[in-house]
Design goal:
The strands form two sheets. Strands 2, 3, 4, 5, 6, 7, 8, 9 and 10 form a nine-stranded mixed beta sheet that branches. The protein has a two-stranded antiparallel sheet with strand order 1-11. The longest helix has 16 residues. With about 300 residues, the chain is of the alpha/beta class. It contains 13 helices and eleven strands. The two termini are about 35 Å apart. α2 packs across α11 and α2 packs across α12. The chain folds into two domains: about 190 residues, Periplasmic binding protein-like II (D-Maltodextrin-Binding Protein, domain 2), CATH 3.40.190; about 100 residues, D-Maltodextrin-Binding Protein, domain 2 (3-Layer(aba) Sandwich).
Length: about 300
């Protein structure tokens, strides 16, 4: 994927705009977001949070693992999670949907990917499927690199090892962080040392590195991925205005790739990335806000200088 940040700005209306938060809303009810520590989810949540603040809401964002976030949603400590991946995390979510405790509002990103990947030099040497890993075990040092402990991707890889799927019974999962995993990938970026790692899109890794996602004949990773916005049922019932916005906030995959590239690769401050994007993309923001009012129930006040 290429960085589409500049392209995204081309062709937009030239007049800047702002959403004026009306006075007297300092005591508005707080909207409690949570996000796993993934750059794409972090920026997406910040964009939503800032946009709602411009409408006069108070927001907070907590960072935690998906398992902890789901418990917080059920327990009433968290209102919204915008980073639930399907199908890989469906097993964690579906029982809570079936019980009526949570609501899946929208697939906010479609065409995403989340599965085991290798760099280009490993693919050129014939590693195109998870079934090809075992015969090159020494090159990979019998290791699969994941991210934070408890992540469902790590668990999928661990189950493959425990079940000796694809002959991976003597391998191990190295749980780290996104930064640690990608540092390992960069350190092994030559033809002698190979890295099998948890990859996903949208993410800047797809721009910065030659990433190739492995075929999965046994279907461990499920079908094509989507990313969902999930909220507690209680929140949906008490915050219909915000729910309407969340249902309409669908992010083109190239937009989130650009967000992640700016935040993680270019090291721009999170709030700046989100704020600048909101200021320069009125058309998409307008679609997200159709039928949505300010926190005190008045129509949005969009101004052009």
């Amino acid at each position: 994927m290429t960085n589409h940040h500049d392209t995204l700005r081309t062709g937009l209306v030239t007049a800047a705009f702002c959403i004026v938060a009306l006075p007297g809303l300092a005591h508005a009810e707080e909207l409690r977001f949570a996000t796993p520590p993934w750059p794409g989810a972090t920026v997406k949540t910040e964009v939503a949070s800032q946009l709602l603040e411009r409408l006069g809401y108070q927001t907070s964002v907590k960072e935690a693992s998906t398992a902890i976030i789901l418990e917080g949603l059920v327990g009433g400590d968290i209102d919204v999670d915008m980073a639930l991946w399907r199908p890989s995390q469906g097993g964690m979510l579906d029982p809570r949907l079936e019980s009526g405790e949570l609501v899946e509002l929208v697939h906010n990103i479609q065409g995403a990917r989340f599965r085991l990947a290798v760099p280009g030099h490993a693919r050129e040497a014939g590693v195109r499927s998870m079934a090809d890993l075992a015969k090159h075990a020494e090159r990979f040092d019998h290791r699969l690199y994941g991210i934070e402990p408890g992540n469902v991707g790590n668990e999928i890889m661990q189950r493959a090892i425990e079940d000796d799927t694809y002959g991976l019974g003597d391998w191990q999962v190295v749980a780290s962080s996104v930064t640690g995993m990608l540092s390992q990938l960069e350190a092994n970026n030559d033809s002698d040392r190979w890295t099998a790692f948890l990859g996903w899109e949208p993410h800047w890794m797809n721009v910065a590195y030659d990433v190739h996602y492995l075929e999965d004949p046994e279907g461990l990773w499920g079908d094509a991925s989507t990313v969902s916005t999930v909220a507690s049922t209680e929140f949906v019932e008490r915050a219909p205005n915000v729910t309407t916005f969340l249902e309409q906030m669908i992010v083109p995959i190239e937009v989130q790739n650009a967000w992640v590239h700016e935040f993680s690769r270019e090291d721009r401050p999170l709030r700046e990335v989100a704020s600048d994007w909101l200021d320069t993309n009125p058309e998409l923001v307008g679609k997200w806000l159709e039928g949505v009012s300010t926190a005190n129930g008045t129509p949005q006040n969009l101004e052009s200088p």
